[in-house]
Amino acid sequence: MIKLSNIDKYIDSRFQRTFILKGIDLEVAQGEFLTIMGPSGAGKSSLMNIIGMLDEPSAGEYYFFDEPVHKMREKKKSEMHKNYIGFIFQAYHLIDELTVYENIETPLLYKGVNSNLRKSLVAEMLDRFNIVAKKDLFPEQLSGGQQQLVGIARAIVGEPKLLLADEPTGNLHSDQGKQIMNIFQKLNEEGITIIQVTHSEENAKRGKRIVRIADGAVAADEMVK
Known about the structure:
Elements: E1 2-12, E2 17-28, E3 33-37, H1 44-51, E4 59-64, E5 67-68, H2 74-84, E6 85-89, H3 100-111, H4 115-128, H5 144-156, E7 162-166, H6 174-189, E8 193-197, H7 201-204, E9 209-214, E10 217-223
Parallel strand pairs: 3-8, 3-9, 6-7, 7-8
Antiparallel strand pairs: 1-2, 1-4, 4-5, 9-10
């Protein structure tokens, strides 16, 4: 599903080149649940942004379902991102001016889904995450855990093939974190490929494979025992 070959990400200043990622080789099969770990500043978020087509590498090749992302124009990349990828962030990134319902509906509007189907898909998400009663509230009226549930609902309402989660439980207390990880495991069982970044060894073990990154390079790639 995903193949990264010799990916570099660097910043050039007048006198030097600073590498954020260096020589990353990574393959992810459809249906995997992969965790990326490493110290702060190791390049984890940069790698996620490249995989999620929010950023592009400075060098190397990226294939998504055998399509060469590194050769794509912005418009095609944006279409791929919109149709195949859901993103969940540590800081929720909900739109403050929109209600829970409208936040979940947003990706469907971008995709041009018709009104009746939008209603039914959003209703399904509200029901699935037990947030029907919250549908007319705004993000600031919700707890952190509830905001993250809305974030997940928004990320999966368009039925993405790939879910990217960057520190999804970082701002939550442990019970809420467990609830989110339970949801991820269920989504993975339903066939969604998941790549998460986390500092938590416990959360990492919910997945099937751990890739450890240090100084912008892959230091280890191991199956979860």
